[in-house]
Amino acid sequence: MQAWFCDTLDGPDALSWKDAPTPEPGKGEVRVAIKAASLNFPDLLIVQGKYQMKPPMPFVPGAEFAGVVEAVGEGVKHLAVGTHVAGFAGTGGFGTHTLAPAFALMPLPPAFSFEDAAAFLCTYGTTYHALMDRAALKAGETVLVLGAAGGVGTAAIQIAKAAGAKVIAAASTDEKCALCTTLGADATINYTTQNLREALKAITEGKGPDVVYDPVGGELTEQTFRSIAWRGRHLVVGFANGAIPNLPLNLALLKGASVMGVFWGEFAKREPQNNAACLMQLAAWYMEGKIKPVIEHTLPMSALKQAFDLMGSRQVRGKVVLTNG
């Protein structure tokens, strides 16, 4: 096998493409021949030593991938050689093969492409858990999506619309806002040229959004929380802005509002049956054409460093996917 190895925590530029022995699966493990893998923000953090999970070095980064089962270890019952799978294992995706725990793999329906599958589990799993499980989103409610043109943002627009909600998409450029409109957003806000709070007041007629989906953090968090509706739910998904905000808790009191943490990876570990039910619903929506990953760039696996540069520029709409052969 070949893979991108992280030998130091000096970021993407320090990664090196190397040959390594093709591993054999142990108990409860599966070896996957990787067909496609996608980039997520934690992939950047983990090679910088800034992510909460710190695997021993050397390791192969790449949390999310799709491919074909090549070998199964002892005790694996639900997967067989030849099964097409999507996986979210934390590491291992940026190579030709990987070992993954069987519980971290989802069998794919026949019409599910490897490219879409590689951009599906983390983004859509996180977002469904956030909107439907944590926030208990109801049809007719209004959802504000921050960073709406990114990977999780585009998933949030699609899932909220599939659930019957009204969607306000907030992004940093007019081009990104236009993309959000094509995905079904009912209204858009360019928060670099518009006053976010004034725009929200106008769009919601003073009520504010019922749910805020926030993968951005920074100064936008307090602005949106000040605009949230009575009994609103603010979903803390991530901090793509880089800054973890300090939120005055008197705002939660005044609005009767909730701040809800979203950690899909931990949810999947602690509540595997609930997570499986969420993924089944997502797969059904995909097959019905209600949701589909937005993939702006598809590059060969050899172009991983270029892919990191694209993601770091924060100009990518949707996801970047890498493919083997």
Query: How many helical stretches?
Result: 11
* Number of extended strands: 15
Biggest sheet, open or closed, and with what strands and sense? 7 strands, mixed
CATH class designation of the largest domain: Alpha Beta
- Helix percentage range: 25-40%
CATH topology of the largest domain: Quinone Oxidoreductase, Chain A, domain 1
CATH architecture assignment of the largest domain: Alpha-Beta Complex
- Rounded radius of gyration (Å): 20 Å
The share of residues in extended strands comes to: 15-25%
Kindly state the mean pLDDT as a whole number? 95
Chain oligomer state: single chain
Tally of distinct domains? 2
Low-confidence stretches: none
Domain Enoyl reductase (ER): 11-322
GO molecular function, one term: oxidoreductase activity
InterPro entries: ADH-like_C, ADH-like_N, ER, GroES-like_sf, NAD(P)-bd_dom_sf, Quin_OxRdtase/zeta-crystal_CS, Zn-ADH-like_protein
Protein name: NADPH2:quinone reductase
